Amino acid sequence: MKKHLLSVHDLSMDDVETLFATAAEMHDVQHRQVKKLPALRGRTVINLFFEDSTRTRSSFEIAGKWLSADTINITGKGSSASKGESLRDTVLTICAMGVDALVMRHSASGAALQVSQWVDAAVINAGDGTHEHPSQALLDAYTLQRYFEAKNLGPLEGKHVAIVGDLTHSRVFRSNVGLLTKLGARVTVVAPPTLMPSGVGPWSQDAGYATSYDLDEVLPTADAVMMLRVQKERMSGGFFPTGREYTVGYGLTRQRLSLLRQDVPILHPGPMNRGLEIAADAADAASSVVLDQVSAGVAVRMSILYHLLAGEGNEK
Amino acid sequence: MSRLLITGASIEGGAAADVLVVDGAIAEVGHDLDRSGAEVVDADGLVALPGLVDLHTHLREPGREDAETILTGSQAAAVGGYTAVLAMANTNPVTDTAEAAERVHALGQAAGVVDVHPVGSVTKGLAGEELSEIGLMARSKARVRVFSDDGRCVGNARVMRRALEYVKAFGGVISQHSQDTDLAGSASCCHEGELSGRLGLPGWPGVAEDVIVARDVMLARHTGSRVHVAHVSTAGSVEVLRWAKSQGIDVTAEVTPHHLLLTTDLLAGYDPTFKVNPPLRPAEDVEALRAALADGTIDAVATDHAPHARHDKEHAFVDAAFGMLGLETAVQVVAQVMVESGRMTWADLARVMSTTPARIAGLEGQGQGLVVGAPANLTLVDPSADVTVDRADSVSLSRNNPYHGRSFGASVRATFLRGRATVLDGTLV
């Protein structure tokens, strides 16, 4: 495994299998009364969040604590540029305190990669702008695997996964399309043309995923559906006219649920805009795995921290 | 009487000859010229070019003297073979008054390394609303002829129209930074295309440039005035320019060395060294620019030399400053892309990097070629060098050099400003 986790493209198939195997062990720990493992005792993990986050930050914090690492949160709003300090100075200052891992969230794409070139600590990308969110993709794929296993639906390989929503601005989409295709799933991404990422034509051809503007056409063959959050401020950017129109075209509505087989899992990275991209009937359906994703998130992040900090054979 | 004899230089890539300079002017070009009392510079194997003229330089003074000064920028220019540069107006304060222009001009004269001609802003404070004191700048000692809000586009068509009309009185020209700000949002930081989609970087498409070039050539036709398109970066702009020239519209255009060589793929590592405005474009655009420079659709090469302090580049990509160095490396980049590839001759390079830019800017005493009677502004280039660029070697105060580690086959050996050596043996005098 590489020293940093910046992108799903850093991971080999072996790496993913290893991470998932450890995550499964960690998952069992979650259900114990005493959840603490000594694996990272004495190690320091900084959650450095330049952008608001509740679930990802607390998920990493719990993961670190259950592994006995000293986990500290540092949050700051806005770019370091607006404070007059360069990003390099900001992270070098923090790392000078003695840090083993930086779990980093930043509003700028590529920020985690840049930081990894400046510091000695292992850098875990917890979301960089609209680029990647690799731990989210790992927990999504892990959740899907466990779901298909539990329902005797076979492996993730060969399954048809639909990813629906604001693709342009979604790091969850970028990490998921990379990881799911790596794991052999067939991916179709669905969005109105204005929310398709630029250059999606050649990119999708090269990376081997499909694109569609028509959700109703995609859903009947889907084996899993991942709905992405749509931010209301995109309306003012002219990406779509109204929320109502978006829901009619691209929301997972009560009516659209009938296009899905009953055992098709419904995923959402949260926070959900109920009534916009996902109806309550879908969010609360028996096949919804939204809360399983959150629970898996802690296990997968424990596994990531464990392998980057305690694992053997790290390429240092 | 001072005499300088440059021996054996290939004149603009043609036959070798000696060049005799007397009191700062070219006195004779020929063979076996009289050496008596002359300082002799052996230029055997070197190409002699007229001193280069840069239509587009950011010298950062006043305002950001930590990134570059008029002196250090002048030195970087001389090292690159230049004898004249046009200093863009987006300093702090902005060059939008006669006093500001004269100050830049005077600092350039005091530095005395290249001729520094201030560019005046089109609008007060680059705000795009009211015209700057264009006429006073033109009448000032700085004799400003080129006006530009570079860094920003004169987006308002009414303001652009009035500016084009106004400068007709004294033969001025508006150099436009063509970028539709509605299509290029404030967070945009790169070319919008497949790579920006993958990287999750907000970009702006080539058409944001094309539509302004198209609008401006129509305004130039309507006003009968002269417009200059700064740093053309797209195949679409080239198409518009080709059409406009076929219609006889008075438009000229420049391209930067970096847009002739570097492509948007370099952004894959999110290195802000490669963040520049206009952004690096895909290979198809680069090829269109090369073809346009070769066939004359694009008239000139200009560096858009844009020094930045190191800490202004050590931000996340979207937050980092736009711009890259260019003066010291321009000739070697253009030589590699256009001359070594066989698409242009050295004489063509002299035309696009000296003669034509001097004509566009209305500079007297620059870009006149190696002819008897002309001021001895010239540069000697080794066309068979093997040099690897090291950003640490730069005489610029900044280090945002996009060519660090790249190798080139040409290098500037000497530069003369009115017969006085500013660079000899590749180093500042």
Automatic annotation (TrEMBL), chain A:
Keywords: Pyrimidine biosynthesis, Transferase. It catalyses: carbamoyl phosphate + L-aspartate = N-carbamoyl-L-aspartate + phosphate + H(+). It is an enzyme of class 2 (transferase). Pathway: Pyrimidine metabolism; UMP biosynthesis via de novo pathway; (S)-dihydroorotate from bicarbonate: step 2/3. It holds the Pfam family OTCace_N. Residues 3-145 form the Aspartate/ornithine carbamoyltransferase carbamoyl-P binding domain. One of its GO terms (biological process) is amino acid metabolic process. It comes from the Bacteria. GO terms for molecular function: amino acid binding; aspartate carbamoyltransferase activity. The keyword Magnesium does not apply. One of its GO terms (cellular component) is cytosol. Its EC number is 2.1.3.2. Residues 157-308 form the Aspartate/ornithine carbamoyltransferase Asp/Orn-binding domain. Carbamoyl phosphate binds at R55, T56, R105, H133, Q136, G270, P271. Belongs to the aspartate/ornithine carbamoyltransferase superfamily. ATCase family. NCBIfam families: asp_carb_tr (TIGR00670), PRK00856.1 (NF002032). Catalyzes the condensation of carbamoyl phosphate and aspartate to form carbamoyl aspartate and inorganic phosphate, the committed step in the de novo pyrimidine nucleotide biosynthesis pathway. Heterododecamer (2C3:3R2) of six catalytic PyrB chains organized as two trimers (C3), and six regulatory PyrI chains organized as three dimers (R2). This is Aspartate carbamoyltransferase. It comes from Nocardioides bruguierae. The lineage of its organism: Bacteria, Bacillati, Actinomycetota, Actinomycetes, Propionibacteriales. The gene is pyrB.
Automatic annotation (TrEMBL), chain B:
PROSITE patterns: DIHYDROOROTASE_2. It catalyses: (S)-dihydroorotate + H2O = N-carbamoyl-L-aspartate + H(+). Pathway: Pyrimidine metabolism; UMP biosynthesis via de novo pathway; (S)-dihydroorotate from bicarbonate: step 3/3. Zn(2+) 2 binds at D150, H177, H231. The keyword Signal does not apply. Belongs to the metallo-dependent hydrolases superfamily. DHOase family. Class I DHOase subfamily. NCBIfam families: PRK09357.1-1, pyrC_multi. This is Dihydroorotase. It comes from Nocardioides bruguierae. The gene is pyrC.
